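Subject: Protein entry, chain in single-letter code together with its fold tokens

Category: Structural biology, sequence-to-fold work with a learned token vocabulary.

Notation: Tokens come from a learned vocabulary of local backbone shapes, not from coordinates.

Start of record: The labelled sequence and token lines come straight after this line.
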Amino acid sequence: MDRAQKEKVVEELGQIFESSGVVVVAHYTGLTVAEMQELRARAREAECSVRVAKNRLAKIALQGKPCEGMSHLLEGMTVLTYSEDPVAAAKVSEDFAKGNSKFEILGGAMGENILDRAGVEAVSKMPSREELIASIVGCIVAPAANIAGAIGAPASNIAGILSTIEDKAAA
């Protein structure tokens, strides 16, 4: 890899570290190509990305970034899982680690917050952005549905009473 290619990789990694909601660092020693492809496929489904990069270049890219404190995690064979959603990459990494002992999560970063192994696990248990939006919409819509039901109820009660009176008059 020549100098220009290295500079390009450092720039790409710098953008990843700046724009990602969460970055998870893991060791992947011993993973087969098929297992790595499975990780990438799971990440794609969850709108995450997986990147293997030289630690030295990643450390250079981290300089001056909010998550610079996670540079100590970049030792050995590391892989980065990252996403804009602050929860998605952590969930994908945790799920993959449960089924594969060769994938060892070291930690990561969520903005300026440096996460240890337990921190990544805690983030993975949080609801995703879509789940939060759905619950907020549900909270907003439920009172409106109750009001509509309450407004419509007297009219249906009156209609029921009128039909009962009509049935009695006909009899």
Q: What stands out?
A: The beta strands are 22-27, 49-52, 78-83, 104-110, 113-115.
